Amino acid sequence: MSVTTVRLQAEVEQHLEAIARRLHRSKGWVINQALSEYIEKQQLEQERWKQTLEAMESAAQGKVVDASEVHSWINSWGTENEQNAPRSGK
């Protein structure tokens, strides 16, 4: 484990201390938890952005599905004649 120094605004420090007391944990533990969750969120957002760019490129290449096919598929959910997801023609 490494040590990092961080300057905190007074209000942030007060909230951090209150959370640590409430959880009966150290401030370091709370900071580690918060940073771990933040890093995970950033990684998810980065992956979603990558998927968005891939989808935009796919659409630019004409790999799309007609809206009526999508609506028909969605309307079939939970019925006896549930359809498979439509696929692009390309």
UniProtKB/TrEMBL annotation:
<feature type="domain" description="Ribbon-helix-helix protein CopG">
    <location>
        <begin position="3"/>
        <end position="42"/>
    </location>
</feature>
<dbReference type="InterPro" id="IPR010985">
    <property type="entry name" value="Ribbon_hlx_hlx"/>
</dbReference>
<dbReference type="Pfam" id="PF01402">
    <property type="entry name" value="RHH_1"/>
</dbReference>
<dbReference type="InterPro" id="IPR052991">
    <property type="entry name" value="Non-func_TypeII_TA_Antitoxin"/>
</dbReference>
<protein>
    <submittedName>
        <fullName>Putative transcriptional regulator</fullName>
    </submittedName>
</protein>
<dbReference type="InterPro" id="IPR002145">
    <property type="entry name" value="CopG"/>
</dbReference>
<dbReference type="GO" id="GO:0006355">
    <property type="term" value="P:regulation of DNA-templated transcription"/>
</dbReference>
<dbReference type="InterPro" id="IPR013321">
    <property type="entry name" value="Arc_rbn_hlx_hlx"/>
</dbReference>
